[in-house]
């Protein structure tokens, strides 16, 4: 294949990547489809250029960035191996493996000048243009709708699934857009237009991690641009930081104290919300504890969501505490690598960033050409800004972010190789083609099976909503495979199949499915609770109680488990224990079982307490006062509103 055709492939890969988006027929519209798209592009490059190539520049395989990347992959594989190697491990590893192959291909082609920096820059500018076009389409649709823009900012997501991923992808494009501005006059105008149109989108999406990254980006560029005037640099940069600190400390919190009346106040009200920071603080604390429990090999790549309930649900929001939401990512790529892959993998990951920053800083120091020096400065600023985003979010989970990140690494590595003395170290490498072939076969297989699993899971959700139990079983069996056992919400596919069997009255089959789901996700409270439910249906109450208690140990406020445990105690005649449990349920609960269970348990509890108090006058008074089910509940709720112990409240009714 000619060099021009290879350049066309690279341009098409980057330009078309945002358009690889499957809307409603799949659980995640971008992740698996883009992984498969990258695999297919790499297959084309491999077959046309690298499969039959006899010689490769082995200097690349001695380059520090390549070595630490390989070490990172090896330690990640070991982490997966020591943690049982499941579908989540396989998918995460496949993404890193194809990203590494992309990095190697890109570096070799850049070093041989088959593709050029301009090829990549033009492709990424097109990427940014299409992303912005779709983002403005989202904004236009919101403005034409019935709701004000401030209420629908989360719907500005373009082709990226959510607004934060859109913002971080746009940020990663910024260094390349600035590089394009130095190509020619047309590209300069086009680049200025892209930057100008990006700013309103980045403003509206309110992704604070990206705002911090942009601040870091501007400060790094200012550091180099103002290098000739150290006095100006010393004054401007600290002053800017001081103003931003004051705004964050005093201005934004002030808007949390009043109800917003216009767009600006509403925008600042949302921006000053500290809930996100507090949530991340909780996530990080629990992830740190997770790593302390598994220091060397972590819990396995992609397994954070499976293990997280063990550490954090008792401090979570209502949805998470009741199992309707599951935290799948720690919102910090560095901490995610540490707790999932373990210490050795984290050291390699940190070294990857550290070495990249050192290499590009050396390129800046040694470069004489002003335009190329500016390109290196943009690359360095982009890397540091992206590190800020990675510290506050999880962009490296996404294929498009990995591609843009590894393009920066490939540019750094290829330019570093060119600066080395002597010619390229060309040599035949017999292992190169077989290793790349094996990686592509593995990654393509994983992506295809993952895609198939997500397509059938989307149909599974529809069947569940319609309570079509036989369809649920069919799609659950079609969705589940070696590389896909857990859906995007952290629920094992066997759980859905178990729910369907339960709906059909097939209790034994349901129990078997829930047992398998429990083995896959031992801390998922919905799974644990439903396992208790089937044993309760089989009248094995002690087993049911065991699982209900286990679910409540993870999430003490899990309402379904509280009611189920109270019901089990009631069936066993343990009325006081039943009362202690149901007393923990919020009296404003709308659960249909709550009032039904509450009245029965309260009647038994009041009878036991009155027998214990042994006061005929009190018993007679309450018998006259409380004559209906509603009276029983109102009497109990009054004690709760007064924050009084129920027994003491009964005693206080003495005439």
Task: Give the helix level as a range of percent.
Answer: over 70%
Low-confidence stretches: none
Beta fraction = under 5%
Number of helices: 30
Lateral arrangement of strands in the main beta sheet: 1-2
The best one-word shape is elongated
Structural class: mainly alpha
**End-to-end C-alpha gap:** 98 Å
Largest sheet: 2 strands, antiparallel
How much is the radius of gyration in Å? Answer: 30 Å
- Mean pLDDT value: 88
Number of strands: 2
Question: In words, what does this structure look like?
Answer:
- The protein is mainly α and 655 residues long.
- It has helices spanning 3-16, 31-50, 64-82, 87-111, 117-144, 163-180, 185-205, 208-225, 230-254, 263-271, 275-293, 304-307, 309-312, 318-321, 333-341, 343-366, 370-392, 399-419, 432-465, 469-479, 493-503, 507-520, 525-537, 541-554, 559-571, 575-582, 592-613, 616-625, 629-641, 646-651, and strands at 55-57, 426-428.
- The mean pLDDT is 88.
- The protein starts with a helix and ends with a helix.
- α4 (87-111) packs across α19 (432-465) and α24 (541-554) runs antiparallel to α25 (559-571).
- Strands 1-2 form a two-stranded antiparallel ribbon.
- The protein is elongated and about 100 Å long.
- It contains 30 helices and two strands.
Compose a concise summary of this entry:
The chain has 655 residues and is mostly helical. The chain is built from 30 helices and 2 strands.
Short key terms for the protein model shown above:
single chain, mainly alpha, two-stranded antiparallel ribbon, 2 strands, 72% helix, elongated
């Amino acid at each position: 294949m000619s060099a021009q055709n290879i350049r066309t492939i690279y341009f098409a890969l980057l330009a078309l990547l945002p358009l690889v988006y499957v809307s409603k027929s799949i659980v995640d519209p971008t992740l698996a489809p883009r992984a498969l798209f990258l695999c297919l592009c790499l297959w084309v490059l491999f077959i046309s250029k690298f499969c039959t190539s006899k010689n490769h520049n082995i200097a690349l395989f001695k380059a520090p960035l390549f070595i630490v990347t390989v070490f990172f992959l090896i330690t990640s594989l070991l982490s997966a191996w020591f943690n049982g190697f499941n579908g989540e491990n396989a998918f995460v590893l496949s993404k890193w493996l194809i990203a590494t192959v992309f990095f190697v291909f890109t570096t070799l082609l850049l070093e041989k000048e088959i593709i050029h920096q301009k090829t990549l820059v033009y492709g990424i500018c097109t990427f940014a243009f299409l992303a912005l076009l779709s983002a403005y389409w989202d904004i236009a649709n919101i403005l034409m709708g019935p709701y004000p823009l401030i209420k629908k900012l989360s719907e500005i997501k373009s082709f990226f699934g959510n607004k934060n991923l859109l913002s971080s992808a746009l940020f990663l494009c910024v260094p390349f857009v600035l590089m394009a501005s130095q190509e020619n006059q047309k590209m300069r105008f086009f680049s200025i237009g892209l930057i100008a149109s990006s700013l309103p989108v980045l403003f509206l999406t309110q992704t604070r991690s990206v705002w911090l990254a942009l601040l870091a980006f501007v400060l790094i560029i200012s550091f180099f641009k103002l290098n000739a005037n150290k006095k100006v640099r010393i004054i401007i940069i600290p002053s800017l930081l001081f103003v931003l600190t004051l705004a964050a400390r005093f201005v934004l919190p002030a808007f949390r104290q009043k109800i917003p009346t216009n767009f600006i106040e509403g925008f600042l009200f949302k921006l000053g919300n500290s809930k996100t920071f507090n949530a991340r603080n909780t996530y990080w604390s629990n992830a740190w504890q997770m790593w302390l429990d598994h220091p060397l090999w972590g819990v396995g790549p992609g397994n954070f969501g499976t293990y997280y309930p063990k550490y954090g649900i008792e401090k979570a929001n209502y949805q998470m505490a009741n199992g309707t939401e599951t935290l799948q990512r720690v919102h910090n790529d560095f901490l995610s690598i540490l707790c999932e892959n373990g210490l050795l993998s984290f050291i390699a990951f940190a070294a990857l960033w550290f070495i990249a920053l050192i290499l590009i800083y050396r390129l800046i120091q040694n470069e004489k050409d002003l335009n190329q020096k500016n390109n290196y400065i943009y690359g360095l600023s982009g890397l540091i800004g992206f590190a800020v985003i990675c510290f506050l979010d999880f962009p490296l989970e996404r294929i498009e972010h990995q591609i843009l990140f590894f393009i920066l690494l490939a540019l750094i590595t290829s330019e570093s190789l060119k600066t080395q003395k002597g010619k390229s170290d060309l040599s035949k490498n017999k292992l190169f083609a077989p290793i790349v072939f094996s990686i592509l076969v593995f990654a393509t297989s994983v992506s295809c099976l993952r895609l198939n699993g997500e397509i059938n899971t989307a149909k599974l959700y529809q069947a569940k909503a319609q309570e079509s139990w036989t369809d649920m079983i069919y799609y659950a069996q079609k969705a589940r495979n070696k590389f896909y056992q857990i859906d995007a919400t952290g629920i094992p596919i066997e759980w859905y199949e178990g729910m369907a069997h339960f709906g059909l009255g097939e209790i034994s089959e349901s129990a078997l499915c829930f047992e398998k789901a429990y083995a896959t996700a031992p801390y998922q409270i919905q799974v644990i609770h439903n396992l208790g439910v089937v044993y309760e249906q089989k009248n094995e109450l002690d087993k049911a109680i065991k699982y209900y208690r286990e679910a409540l140990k993870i999430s003490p406020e899990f309402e379904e488990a509280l009611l189920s445990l109270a019901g089990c105690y009631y069936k066993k005649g343990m009325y006081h224990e039943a009362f202690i449990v149901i007393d923990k349920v919020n009296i404003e609960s709308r659960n249909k079982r709550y009032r039904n269970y509450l009245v029965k348990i309260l009647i038994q509890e009041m009878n036991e307490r009155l027998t214990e108090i042994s006061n005929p006058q009190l018993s007679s008074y309450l018998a006259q006062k409380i004559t209906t089910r509603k009276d029983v509940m109102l009497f109990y709720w009054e004690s709760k509103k007064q924050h009084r112990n129920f027994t003491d409240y009964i005693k206080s009714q003495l005439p």
